[in-house]
Write a structure and sequence with these properties.
mainly alpha; 16 helices; elongated
């Protein structure tokens, strides 16, 4: 019987870990189910595997080493697994029934290829509108580029390509189409036709989960998640630059931005949140939470920057705190990954465009004239520092409420 229980506990842990659940929440859920079955387990999650040890076992039968990488986000599977675990804790499901239900949860479909492509196109258009794009032809090429890139990502994934190769080829397509748009004289210095399709590939959930792991002192797993996110960003940047290169197009450093109205900021933020929630297969009845939160978050950031003149870094921190405070109880109540639903609400705030501009400036630096080098180095430093500070401010803002909630829950003896 111990072996059967450990198999089911391992099945639960793998399902949660591999589909984007926060490590602390995975550990808490697994421990709660184990205590219900009079077992005392320790969960040791890593990037390539999860070790599950039953402390009451003396013959080695209570040890499991399961290999699953937490590189995906499927909120419908995590939500289903959370409900199953709750039913087991309440005594509704026994070991055999829980094993069957978990197999069904693990087989839940991800968003279809068609819906993924359409959501990518709509999300990129929403982000472009938030950056000030207004011409219908630019929005059209952005939608075609993002939708085609999403279809290409899924095709490469079905063929066995790595996550890095998937985003690389999609970003290359965005670069090629964006460069063609520049050569036709239809693009501004913002290069939105090139960068907005790449923005929808930013790996935000891994940044948030990695930060939460670091705050919980799970340093190896936290750094692994952040390294995965950094390598994904590198692959996106490399693909974008490879697409721009054949037509001798680059991303100008520090182009002047465009002001948008409060209404546009709110509407585009809500649209982007809906698209990202679709990417991550959020159950439909929960779709309103990230949308409403995004409207409040984008509104608060606009007010802090346009009315209070606090700057993008402070504005991102305020928006993150608001999003984390609102969505922490939602993620707990409905058993959905906090990083997934949280990132969907703040995606319009991510500074991916600064990262791409910095990468482009670094590539052009070796061929720059002596007179232009100081300005180019200054632009690289400015874009890099701005992106880093916004990511840090936003990430800490959104994860701190969740971390404090977890700490209070553990000290209070909550399950």
């Amino acid at each position: 019987m111990l072996q059967e229980k450990m198999d089911v506990i391992g099945q639960l842990a793998c399902l949660l870990h591999a589909n984007g659940q926060q490590t602390e929440e995975t550990t808490r859920t697994v421990s709660r189910v184990a205590r219900t079955w009079d077992e005392d387990v320790v969960l040791l999650p890593g990037w390539d595997s999860i070790a599950i040890i039953d402390l009451r076992s003396t013959d080695g039968s209570g040890v499991r080493l399961l290999c699953r990488q937490p590189s995906g986000v499927a909120m419908n599977r995590v939500a289903a697994a959370g409900k199953i675990a709750q039913a087991a804790t309440d005594g509704v499901f026994g070991v055999t029934r829980m094993a069957s239900e978990l197999r069904s949860a693990n087989a839940l479909p991800l968003v279809s290829d068609t819906a993924f492509s359409l959501a990518s196109a709509a999300g990129a258009i929403a982000l472009a509108l938030g950056f000030g794009a207004g011409h219908w032809s630019t929005l059209l090429i952005i939608g075609v580029s993002a939708g085609g890139g999403a279809a290409l990502r899924r095709w490469v994934g079905h063929a066995g390509g790595s996550p890095f190769l998937q985003v690389f080829v999609a970003a290359m397509l965005a670069g090629l189409l964006g460069a063609a748009w520049v050569r036709l004289g239809l693009s501004s210095d913002l290069r939105l036709a090139a960068v907005c399709p790449c923005m929808v590939m930013v790996p935000g959930p891994h940044l948030l989960n990695g930060t939460l792991d670091l705050l919980a002192e799970r340093l190896p797993l936290g750094w692994s998640r952040l390294s995965f996110a950094a390598l994904t960003l590198f692959a996106i940047s490399a693909g974008l630059l490879c697409g721009l290169l054949p037509l001798h197009v680059t991303l100008p450093p520090a182009p002047p931005g465009r002001d948008v109205s409060l209404l546009i900021a709110i509407v585009t933020g809500a649209a982007a949140a809906a698209c990202y929630a679709t990417f991550f297969s959020l159950p439909r009845h929960l779709l309103g939470w990230p949308i409403v939160t995004a409207m409040l978050v984008d509104g608060s950031r606009w007010l802090s920057m346009s009315v209070l003149h606090l700057g993008p870094v402070v504005g991102a921190g305020i928006a993150g705190l608001l999003a984390g405070t609102l969505l922490t109880p939602v993620s707990r109540r409905w058993h959905v990954p906090f990083a997934g639903i949280g990132f969907a609400a703040v995606v319009s705030l991510m500074p991916g465009v600064f990262v791409f501009r910095m990468a482009a400036a670094i590539v052009t630096l070796p061929g720059a004239t002596a007179a232009s080098v100081p300005a180019l180095v200054g632009a690289i430093a400015l874009d890099g520092l701005t992106a880093s500070l916004i990511v840090i401010s936003l990430s800490l803002g959104i994860v701190l409420p969740k971390h404090l909630y977890d700490v209070c829950l553990d000290r209070g003896g909550g399950a």
